[in-house]
Amino acid sequence: MKITPEQRAKIDSLYCERLSSNDVNFRLVDEFFNSRNTSISDTLQNEAYQEDETGKVAYYVVKNQEGQLLFYFSLKCGMLYDSFIDDHSLKLLNKLMTYLDDISSKEQLTDEEALIVNKFREKLRSHKGLTKKEIEQIPKKGGTILEDLEKEIGENVTHVGSTFSGIELVHFCANENTRDFWKESVEGQKLGVVVFWEFVVKEVLEAMKHVGCQYLFLFAADKTDDEELVAYYRDNLYFKEAVDVATAKPIYDLTCKFMYQETSKLVSEQTYFFEHYNVDSDEA
User: Fold this and answer.
1) 96 DSSP assignment
2) Between the CA of residue 81 and those of 96, 99, 179, 243, what are the distances in Å?
3) Helix or strand or coil: residue 117?
4) 99 φ, ψ to 5°?
5) What is the distance between the alpha carbons of residues 250 and 260, in angstroms, rounded to a whole number?
6) Of the candidates 4, 34, 207, 222, which lies 20 to 30 Å from 164 by C-alpha distance?
7) Which of the 8 DSSP states describes residue 260?
8) Which helix (H) or strand (E) holds 113?
9) Residue with more model confidence, 185 or 74
10) Who's near 171: CB < 8 A, 6+ residues apart?
11) Under a CB-based contact definition with an 8 Å cutoff, are residues 132 and 153 in contact?
C-alpha cells in the first residue's frame, strides 16, 4: 500500500542539512550514539565537521522539528572501473594512445581512417573504454600494439579500461538516542530506509544536475555470519554486489563488501518505494 497522507506529513516534517551549515550541529553531534559501530559516532563527533567544511566529504544530518538529530549520512565522489583493468592493461592502453597519436600525425590516413582514429582517441581520453570488436577497427599502420592488446583482452572480456563516475555513500547511521521518536510517530518503514529514499537519493539527484554520475556505491562493513547488513542494503535500498564493476578499496574498507546500483534507476525505484511504503512494518 502506498504511503498515507499522515505518514507523508511526518516525513515532510523532517529536514536534512549539511553538517557545517549550522553552528548548532557542532554541539548537537555530542548527543549521537550508535552501539553497532562506535567508530561512526566518533567520526561524526571528531572529524566530520572539519571534513564537511573543507569539502573533503559532504556530511548531512537529518533532524525533526524539535531539532533532535535522528540520522546522519555522508557522500563523496568516487570512480569505478571494469574488473579487467590492471597495471599491465593500463600500460597497454597507454601504448595504444601513443600509437593513435603517432599515426594521426605521421601516417597518411584516409578520411574514414582519420575519423576512426579520432573517435578512439577521444574514447580513451574520456575513459569510455574499448571493446575487442572496436579495437579490430583501428587502422594497422605498423607495430604490434594492436595484436598485443587483442591477445590481452581474449574472447570473453567485453570492455577494457572503462571507468565509471560514481558517488560513494560513506556513512549511513541512525542515532539510537532518538530512535523512540521514530517508533512512536511513524509506522510502516524503517528510519534508515526512509532517509535513503527521501534524503540520500535527493542529494545524489541534485549532484547529477551538475556532474555525471553513473553509480551510487558503498562498502558494507558486515561481520555477521548471515550478512545481515548486506541483506539490508540489497532488499531495502536495492544495492547489489559487484559483478562487472570494481573500485579501489581504502585500507579501512579491506574487510567490507563492495555494493552498487545504477543512478539511472533511482527515480523509478524511489517512486516504487513510496508507492509500496506499507509493505513492511518492522522497525530496525
Assistant:
1) H
2) 18, 23, 38, 11
3) helix
4) -60, -45
5) 16
6) 222
7) E
8) helix 111-125
9) 74
10) 40, 43, 44, 59, 72, 73, 74
11) yes
